[in-house]
């Protein structure tokens, strides 16, 4: 059997190399299908299928308000004390600090309780994890380093344990180093560089200041439903005792939090490449059918001299498998290129992207796919050839006759299936494209073109003191404004879209005091004068923040249109008053002096909500307060650009760093980026999905066109005599063209009908992926159907024209 297999493989290779055109086209089609399938499956495997790199990751959960909102310290402590369904409960709080040294830098970190890293089950490669006693306010400041930060900051030295480094003016001692690739919690705060102890301290009774993310590990034998039931009981009791503090608490598997809404998009892409692979198989199958028909006499001779039908079947299947493996080998190359491209384009928009790659498992998957596709497209042609009787084979489809009816119907079925699959893909791509266009047409409210942003934090430097902080920012702003090429500059606490979103409770003058937990909240921004002019956020009524808005003057605020419309409908908001201390008996009232256009806050497609802008020089917390949040501002500047020339504010980045450094070299300038890049990042995922679906749809369209062309061309070649007779009897070239094109269009019509039905069924899974368009959008269906029919007509017209030019005398002699 082994010797026979080797002979079959050699013969298959010889036959494929002899018919090079056929082999090249078939291998190319299979390489596209197999390569795309392997690349996308490697993404799905890395992001969705591969377990999170923790011990028993399916037992880890996140406890939050409404799936993503943070938790107050007092609530966390109560949940931990009262719950019995968790073996451990811990909390984490995001922070970013300035690391002092020859080159100051800003480091991203998490303050965590000792339970958090321990519940992952991952041991450090050096040292130990954080200890419970280090959570005390007087405890030692310890730090566990991420592998990448250890390599970069400490050169990967093995003697790093015990070494001290300064963050925000405080000395931390290195107690451990986590393994390479370790990241926790892999959502909300990704790419953490250091973990330090979280001290609740005097916040233990606070139920209003929510900044914690709570994580837990389910106790053995406890189900997720049981955990949710107990947490619902605990939070209901706490809500009765402390109204407005324990509403909508969710218990969500950590894996769900990490993957987020990318699951649907990846599964849709996996289905799309599956369609491409099926189209490629159908394409190669009818190529094999045509080739098998041409080899029918060869098979008959081999049967006549004693070859068994099983032997012929084995030989033909061997050729198919060799062809499939050749396509798989070429597909691996395409998959490697595709994976690298995907990782590069999706950085920042797809979770766990660093775990995507081609490994031994993916190569095994490719081999299986290659063998399966080889069997898929080769089995039917092989069975048809090996089962045809010699006499029937000499009659059915013989030269000079019309093509065998059974083979014609089979080829029509294959092409119809290609048309249907291609139309489903085109519809999905059309919906993604229209959705992306709708996202791109969203008005952010401001003009991001020509604007550069940079984070400037004085935390841990000599400029952090309240008396010096304002002077530093003022001096730094003056230096930046003096730079050549800078048109305007200002500061804001958090950059829209790319920054944090902090809410603040308030009360409108003349309204009843709301019940606890039900007061309205608005996103608040603290801005320097000139901010609205820099980002060109239009003023609708009143005025903006000016240099005159300082302490001692009448407190003012600028609100957005949604805020004004929501709280003063059919009234002018300018002159109205609110208080930012809704529970006070004698509050300080702040006057609305301006209304600006609604601006995108964080989620690009989210509807507008209340937003207010406070003058920096009237906000005591920023002028006189202490803490990391008041020692951090974001610089925004508008570059002066010549009319008609492309404006790149990024070129000003080195000059901006030097200008701020001239005030104090110890202050790091980080996250320097154009606001256009921030906006592009907000739409990166739908743009990537659209590009991939459009690519797959284009490949499917080309393959379907090739399939139609191939079938019609083959049909014409088998009907040469018939067409010659028709012409000899008076048929005009136009009638011949109509006959041949009509034959193709009948198949296309059947395939398109099935494709529309399939698209209506499949695109329902894209409901959460589209924006501004329904998955049943008639314009999209009509457009892609017309596109597919147009391509099909063009593919049919070429062989039809060739048929119309057949010389009847030549055709009659060919008989």
Describe this protein's structure.
The chain has four domains: 196 residues, no CATH class; 181 residues, no CATH class; 152 residues, no CATH class; 208 residues, no CATH class. It has 24 helices and 22 strands. α2 packs antiparallel against α8, α10 runs antiparallel to α11 and α20 packs antiparallel against α22.
Short overview:
The protein is α+β, with helices and mostly antiparallel strands and 815 residues long. It has 24 helices and 22 strands.
Number of helices: 24
Helical/strand content category = alpha+beta
Strand content: 15-25%
Give the overall pLDDT as a whole number.
Answer: 86
Unreliable runs: 396-403
User: How many β-strands, per DSSP?
Assistant: 22
The general outline is elongated
Terminus-to-terminus distance:
43 Å
Topology:
Elements (H helix, E strand, L loop, with lengths): L1 H17 L1 H30 L10 E6 L7 H10 L3 E14 L5 E8 L1 H6 L6 E2 L14 E4 L1 H8 L9 E4 L2 E8 L16 E4 L15 E6 L5 H18 L7 E5 H6 L2 H33 L1 H9 L4 H38 L13 H28 L2 H6 L9 H36 L10 E7 L8 H16 L4 E7 L10 E3 L1 E2 L12 E7 L3 H5 L3 E4 L13 E5 H7 L9 E3 L9 E8 L14 E5 L4 H5 L7 E8 L13 H9 L7 E6 H8 L1 H35 L1 H9 L4 H30 L15 H27 L3 H7 L1
Parallel strand pairs: 3-8, 5-7, 15-20, 17-19
Antiparallel strand pairs: 1-9, 1-10, 2-3, 2-9, 4-7, 5-8, 6-7, 11-21, 11-22, 12-21, 13-15, 14-18, 16-19, 17-20, 18-19
Helix pairs in contact: 1-10, 2-8, 2-10, 2-11, 8-11, 8-13, 8-20, 10-11, 13-20, 13-22, 13-23, 14-18, 20-22, 20-23, 21-24, 22-23
């Amino acid at each position: 059997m082994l010797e026979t297999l080797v002979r079959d493989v050699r013969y298959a290779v010889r036959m494929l190399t002899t018919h090079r055109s056929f082999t090249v086209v078939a291998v190319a089609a299979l390489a596209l299908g197999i390569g795309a399938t392997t690349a996308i499956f490697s993404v799905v495997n890395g992001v969705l299928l591969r377990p999170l790199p923790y011990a028993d990751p399916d037992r880890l959960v996140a406890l939050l308000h409404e799936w993503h909102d943070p938790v107050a310290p007092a609530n966390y402590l109560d949940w931990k004390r009262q719950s019995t369904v968790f073996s451990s409960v811990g909390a984490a709080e995001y922070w970013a600090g300035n690391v002092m040294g020859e080159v100051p830098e800003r480091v991203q970190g998490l303050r965590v309780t000792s339970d958090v890293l321990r519940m992952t089950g991952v041991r450090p490669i050096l040292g130990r994890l954080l200890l419970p006693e280090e959570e005390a306010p007087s405890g030692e400041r310890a730090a566990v380093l991420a592998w990448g930060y250890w390599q970069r900051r400490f050169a990967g030295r093995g003697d790093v344990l015990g070494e001290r480094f300064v963050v925000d003016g405080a000395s931390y001692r290195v107690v451990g180093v986590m393994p390479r690739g370790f990241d926790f919690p892999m959502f909300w705060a990704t790419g953490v560089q250091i973990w330090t102890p979280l001290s609740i301290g005097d916040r233990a009774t606070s139920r209003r200041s929510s900044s914690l993310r709570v994580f837990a590990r389910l106790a053995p034998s406890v189900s997720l439903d049981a955990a949710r039931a107990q947490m619902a009981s605990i939070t209901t009791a706490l809500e009765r005792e402390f109204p407005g503090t324990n509403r909508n608490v969710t218990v969500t598997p950590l894996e769900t939090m990490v993957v987020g809404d990318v699951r649907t998009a990846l599964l849709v892409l996996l289905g799309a490449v599956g369609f491409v692979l099926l189209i490629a198989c159908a394409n190669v199958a009818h190529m094999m059918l045509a080739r098998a028909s041409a080899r029918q006499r060869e098979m008959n001779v081999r049967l006549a001299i004693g070859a068994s039908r099983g032997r012929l079947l084995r030989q033909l299947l061997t050729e198919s498998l060799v062809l499939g493996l050749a396509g798989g080998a070429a597909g691996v190359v395409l998959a490697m290129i595709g994976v690298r491209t995907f990782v590069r384009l999706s950085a920042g928009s797809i979770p766990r992207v660093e775990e995507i790659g081609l490994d031994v498992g993916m190569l095994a998957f490719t081999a299986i796919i290659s063998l399966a596709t080889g069997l898929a497209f080769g089995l039917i042609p092989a069975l048809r050839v090996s089962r045809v009787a010699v006499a029937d084979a000499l009659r059915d489809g013989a030269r000079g006759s019309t093509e065998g009816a059974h083979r014609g119907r089979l080829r029509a079925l294959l092409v119809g299936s290609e048309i249907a699959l291609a139309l489903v893909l085109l519809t999905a791509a059309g919906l993604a494209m229209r959705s992306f266009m709708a996202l791109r047409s969203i008005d952010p409210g401001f003009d991001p073109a020509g604007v550069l942003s940079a984070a400037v934090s004085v935390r841990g430097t000599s400029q952090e003191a309240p008396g010096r902080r304002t002077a530093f920012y003022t001096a730094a702003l003056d230096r930046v404004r003096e730079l050549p090429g800078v048109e305007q500059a200002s500061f804001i606490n958090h950059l829209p879209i790319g920054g944090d979103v902090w809410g603040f409770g308030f009360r409108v003058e003349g309204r009843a005091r709301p019940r606890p937990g039900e007061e309205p909240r608005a996103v608040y921004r603290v801005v320097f004068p000139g901010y609205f002019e820099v980002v060109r956020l239009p003023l609708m009524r009143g005025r903006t923040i000016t240099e005159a808005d300082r302490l001692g003057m009448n407190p003012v605020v600028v609100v957005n249109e949604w805020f004004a419309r929501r709280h003063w409908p059919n009234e002018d908001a300018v002159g109205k008053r609110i208080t930012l201390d809704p529970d006070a008996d004698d509050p300080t009232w702040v006057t609305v002096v301006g209304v600006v256009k609604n601006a995108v806050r964080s989620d690009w497609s989210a509807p507008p909500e209340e937003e207010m802008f406070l003058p920096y020089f009237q906000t005591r917390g920023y002028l006189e307060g202490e803490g990391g949040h008041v020692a951090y501002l974001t610089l925004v500047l508008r570059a002066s650009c010549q009319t008609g020339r492309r404006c790149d504010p990024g070129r000003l980045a080195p000059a901006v760093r030097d200008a701020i450094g001239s005030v104090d070299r110890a202050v790091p300038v980080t996250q320097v980026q154009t606001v256009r890049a921030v906006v592009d990042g907000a739409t990166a995922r739908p743009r990537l999905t659209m590009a991939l679906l459009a690519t797959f749809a284009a490949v499917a369209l080309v393959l379907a066109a090739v399939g139609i062309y191939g079938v019609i061309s083959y049909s014409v070649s088998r009907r040469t005599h018939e067409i010659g007779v028709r012409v000899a009897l008076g048929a005009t070239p136009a009638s011949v063209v109509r006959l041949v094109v009509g034959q193709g269009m009948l198949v296309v019509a059947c395939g398109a009908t099935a494709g529309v039905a399939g698209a209506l069924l499949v695109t329902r899974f894209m409901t959460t992926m589209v924006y501004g368009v329904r998955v049943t959008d008639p314009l999209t269906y009509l457009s892609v159907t017309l596109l597919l029919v147009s391509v099909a007509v063009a593919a049919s017209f070429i062989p039809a024209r060739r048929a119309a030019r057949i010389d009847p005398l030549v055709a009659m002699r060919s008989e």
